[in-house]
Each structure stands twice: as C-alpha cells, then as structure tokens.
Amino acid sequence: MDKVMEEIKKRMDSAAVEAPKAEAPKVECKNPGITEFVGTAIGDTIGLVIANVDPILHSYMKLDPKYRSIGILGARTGAGPHIMAADEAVKATNTEIVAIELARDTKGGAGHGCLIIFGAEEVSDARRAVEVALKELDRTFGDVYANDAGHLELQYTARASLAIQKAFNAPVGKAFGLIVGAPAAIGVLMADTAIKTANVDIVGYASPAGGTSYSNEVILMVTGDSGAVRQSVIAARELGKKLLEAMAGPAPSVTKSYI
C-alpha cells in the first residue's frame, strides 16, 4: 500500500498549513505505445485489452467460447474499489465478468490486490468496460482510509450488478454494502456495529482464515433496503475510523468520500 500511503502522508503534512483539498491524487499515465494498453489509475492499477485471445490460452483460462476479446483490470492495492468500479462498467457496456481473483498483496499491507477479467464478443466493448472501471476508481477509493496501523474500506451501491454478484454472491438489483476493517480486530467490531445499526441481511463474512487470501482483515457484506444498507455502512465507518486513528493517528480518505 506504499503508493496510497504516500498520498495520505502528503495530505497529513499539508494539513498543518492549508485546508485539505478534495481533489483526487493525480496518477500519471505513460502510454508505452502498446495497442493493448488502456490506462492506469490509483492503487497501482492497470487496464489492458486483448482483441483475440490465443485459442490455447483461451481454453486454459476457461473462457466462454463466445468471448474472443477480454478486458483486464489489475491492481496491487485494492479489491473492493475495483469490484465496485467493474460493477458500474458492466452496467454501462455489453460485457460480462469472467473472473475476479483477490491476490494477497497490497504491497506488503494488510489487504488484497486484484485481477478482474471482462469477457466481450467485441474488443470495443472490452476496452470500454476497462475505461469505465478506471474512471470510476477515483470515486470508489473515496471511502478507503489508511494510516500506518491499517486501513478501512467501505462501499455502497443502491443497485448491485453482475460484478458484485460474481465477487460476493450478492443479489442483483438490490442495495449492497461492503465493510472492511484491517487489522481484523477492528473489522470484527465494525461488522457487529453495522448489523446492530440497521435492519440489513448478511450476504457474507470473511476473516483471515476464512474467505480472504489470509489477509489481516474482516470483511462483511450486507444487502437490504437502500437506506438501511447505507446507514449500516456509515455507522461502521465512523466507528472504524475512531479505532484506527487511536492506533496510529489520522486516517484520511485517499480521495473524497462518496457514501
């Protein structure tokens, strides 16, 4: 999580002399002159596209034969923000989420990295899905908070789509909330607070030895009425920030909160 932490430390250092800026940190995108390159984004994220996957590799990747093109979204830091961004991408394009994998990464931090594959019959659809997801990341990183002790991640949507269903087995079309606390001890209390705050249904619960890639996180997924889900996520966020900041000082948002 080095890159994210650098951005946070810069914000903390400047806070003493000026008000924090709401602008998202700029991610320099250097086009390497490769046709398959789409772009980069926050969280050490890269977006790529393959117009025609090699037939042998296609079979090993277990792709549906109708998808000759794929879009690729990968990151060292973040998983929830990318899944939420991918969910918006499939809503806006004629693509399907083929795979979502969570790597034990975060550049040595407490959480995950990710690999997300979009399947498409046309390469233009695959490219567009990756473009939409990359653009969404500044928003979906808005409720990621971090300091030297760990991180919190909160996500909310009023209408879950196929990426969220693929990743978390959540019902399509209903409100969805994601609550992540690291270290895991904070996540347990955040989960308990979220459930006690509002009338929501648990979609899933993950801990270091169950449901994660042995990351030091507890993850709660909830669904239900949109107002209740949002209230549940906000309550967990406020509690989690107090606990994380008690451990290691200020834990500001990397970009700007959207929940």
Descriptive report:
Helices cover 36% and strands 27% of the residues. It has 259 residues and is α+β, with helices and mostly antiparallel strands. A hairpin with a 7-residue loop joins strand 4 and strand 5. The longest helix has 23 residues. The chain has a 5-stranded antiparallel beta sheet. Strands 6-7-8-10-9 form a 5-stranded antiparallel beta sheet, with helices on both faces. About 4% of the residues have low confidence. The chain is globular. It contains 7 helices and 10 strands. Helix 3 runs antiparallel to helix 5 and helix 6 runs antiparallel to helix 7. InterPro entries: BMC_CP, BMC_dom, CcmK-like_sf, EutL_PduB, PduB. Keywords: Bacterial microcompartment. It is found in: Bacterial microcompartment. This is Propanediol utilization microcompartment protein PduB. Its main location: other.
Blueprint of the fold:
Elements: H1 2-14, E1 37-41, E2 45-50, H2 55-60, E3 69-75, H3 80-92, E4 96-104, E5 112-120, H4 123-140, E6 144-147, E7 150-157, H5 162-168, E8 175-182, H6 184-197, E9 201-206, E10 218-224, H7 226-248
Antiparallel strand pairs: 1-2, 2-3, 3-5, 4-5, 6-7, 7-8, 8-10, 9-10
Subcellular location: Bacterial microcompartment
Keywords: Bacterial microcompartment
Protein name: Propanediol utilization microcompartment protein PduB
